[in-house]
């Protein structure tokens, strides 16, 4: 590949669209060509900004069509390249350059939907990790609280449940072992027993037979807890008879 041809690959390189052999040759060329280095830097920055700005998901096949265009359209070489000395008319070169830049920007926009989606996934994962860490910290505080009190008992089907209550933390933790999985489309829902009035305290993992759950919400004046089988996502109030009722330990 000639030096003149290498000068035309800045856009494809900035979009990671070069075959391995051409990529390696172009990277060797970059080490000795400041003009191409600068152009790659600017095109990469433009592609990144477009990727963050565009939220629409690209239509199927757009990426392939754009990359095919890039393969057939030449960019204008940097001013010092041999193309200016070859007698090519400036107007024609300018038109090809415009087409190539448009192709590069279109490719960057096409990748933008994916970039935004990936960024959103990363943000969601960080948020979930933060929530899980905060919940684990609260759970550990309840279990390690000086006033933590424990009550255990046998549950339906031979399962065993233990509830730990800390009045100073105003929270409770439920630990279950050997629980049968709920029927398909159902979930175990936990409830605070406020003197006969049931208040939702969160859901158990329907795929786990052993689970440790920080009850959702303060203990306040609850005297115990219950477990019912509810539709996936839970219910605002119990819709079935409790499969288990447990009293909270005395303070």
From TrEMBL:
The keyword Transmembrane helix applies. Keywords: Cell membrane, Membrane, Transcription, Transcription regulation, Transmembrane, Transmembrane helix. It comes from the Bacteria. It is a single-pass membrane protein. It is found in: Cell membrane; Membrane. Gene3D superfamilies: Anti-sigma factor, zinc-finger domain (1.10.10.1320). Residues 105-243 form the Anti-sigma K factor RskA C-terminal domain. Residues 6-44 form the Anti-sigma-K factor RskA N-terminal domain. InterPro entries: Anti-sigma-K/W_factor, Anti_sigma_zinc_sf, RskA_C, RskA_N. This is Regulator of SigK. It comes from Streptomyces atroolivaceus.
